[in-house]
Structures are given as structure tokens and as C-alpha cells.
Amino acid sequence: MSRSVLVTGGNRGIGRAIAEAFRDAGEKVAITYRKEDPEIPGILAVRCDVTDSRQVDAAFDEIEARHGNVEILVANAGVTADNMLEDMSDEAFRHVYDTNVGGTFYVARRASAAPMPDGGRIIAISSAIAPYGAYGQANYAASKAAQVGLVKSLMRELAPRNITVNAILPGPIQTDMYDDLSDEVKAGHIASVPLGRCGQPAEIAGVVTFLASPQATFVNGVALPVDGGALGHLI
Ligand SMILES: NC(=O)c1ccc[n+]([C@@H]2O[C@H](COP(=O)([O-])OP(=O)(O)OC[C@H]3O[C@@H](n4cnc5c(N)ncnc54)[C@H](OP(=O)(O)O)[C@@H]3O)[C@@H](O)[C@H]2O)c1
User: Fold this and answer.
1) How far is the CA of 36 from the centre of ligand 1 (A)?
2) Does residue 140 have an active-site annotation?
3) CB under 8 Å to 172, separation ≥6 — which residues?
């Protein structure tokens, strides 16, 4: 089995770990990048800003020509632009929402427009703060919660085509996005994790590949925390 996989934002961080895990499992993997081709062995890199639906369409055209229609889509690309409410600009709100929600919408719409005769998998990388909120992250938390609403709606629409749609809610994961946080905020995050540590990108990749595996054919519409137990008291 060698399926066509697309991981948005697969050039670094969690997305890269996911892309490499699929490649190592023998799938045909494509990623998007924005600036420089990361030149990851065995992975097709396509330039694409997910906030622009025309770039999304062009990226899919290229991937379909090289690997066939995308059967596993991982909507991973995401950004933060933190500030307290009174200091959060219109631009910061729209930038985060357009990337995290708009980008997920554009790629899911384009992926589902192509035939998937053997069914498909769509997996969105949301966040453990989606149902919880976070100081200084009103735009980010709203966008991550909206991703879950999107997933649950697409799940209903696409189930008749045997396309499952799920969300993963990572806790703090060691990437550039996490490293950008202040030491104080990081300490607060770790204190909220019963396992007492940050997660690694590979620990998200393992769950994504499970959701795309034959063992997960009946898992649909879930918002799955992968956070060392941080959300255990909420769900
Ligand atoms: N790290 C965490 O603690 C954590 C926790 C919960 C959820 N998440 C989520 O996990 C996902 C990956 O996060 P990460 O920690 O790996 O972040 P990261 O290291 O900052 O990487 C973000 C990725 O998204 C890409 N991206 C951003 N805006 C884009 C756009 N408009 N078009 C295309 N690609 C774009 C980036 O591309 P460039 O290289 O071009 O910037 C990069 O590949 C995000 O959705 C994030 O919200 C992360």
C-alpha cells in the first residue's frame, strides 16, 4: 500500500515529523513550504501559502500529477500571533484565523474535490487549548476551536464517501512555535501536563499515522488530545 499523502507546513516542526513518518512507512509524501525548499530526501516539496486558495489549487495540481490524488491530508500549517485582547490588532486576528481555519478549509475542500475511490483520511492539527482557551491567545484558541467545528462538519459531509475526518489536539510540543514562548509561559504549560514534560513532534506523528492506518477505519469525528494528560480533567 503506497498512498498519496499531503502534509501542509511539512517543512519543519510537527509537520516534518509527520511527513517523515509517512515516508518511512512507504507512502508517497508531499509537503508544502513557503520560502526555501527544505530538500527532505524522498519527499516532494511544493511551494504553497495555504491562505491563498489559488496557490492551494496549484499545489494540488502538481501533487496529483506526481503522486495521484491526495488520499491522506494532514492540515498542519499553523501560526500564532499572541497578545492580550486590548493589544491584539485586526491584522493579528485575521492572520491567525486565515491561516489556521482558512488554510484548513481550502486544503480540505480541494482534496475532497478529487475522486478517492478507496476512501480517504483528513486529519487537522488543532490544539489542546481549543476547548480550554489561553491568556494572550484569543485569536489562536478561537481558530483552533473553529478547526474542530470544521472537522465535525466535514466528517458528516464526507462519511458517505468513506473519508474520515479527525482532529488531534496536541499539548506543548518541542518546536519553533513552542520555543518562541516566554520561559514563564512554558513553565505554566509544563505545570499543566501530568507527565511533567513537553511532547516531541514524533509523538504527534505516531498518532497521525495511526489515524491514517487500517486500524483506525472506524475512528471518525474525534478531537483527540495528545498532551500528556493535560486535558484529562476536562473531557
Ligand atoms: N508546538 C506546539 O506546542 C503545538 C501545540 C498545539 C498545536 N500545535 C499546532 O501544530 C501545528 C504545527 O505547529 P509547529 O509547532 O510545528 O509550528 P512551527 O514549527 O512554527 O511550524 C509551523 C509550520 O506551518 C507553516 N505555515 C505557517 N503559515 C503557513 C501558511 N500561510 N502557508 C503554509 N504553511 C504555513 C510553517 O511554514 P514556514 O516554515 O514557511 O513558516 C511551518 O512549516 C500548528 O497548526 C500548531 O498550531 C503546535
Assistant:
1) 15
2) yes
3) 178, 186, 189, 190, 193, 198, 199, 227
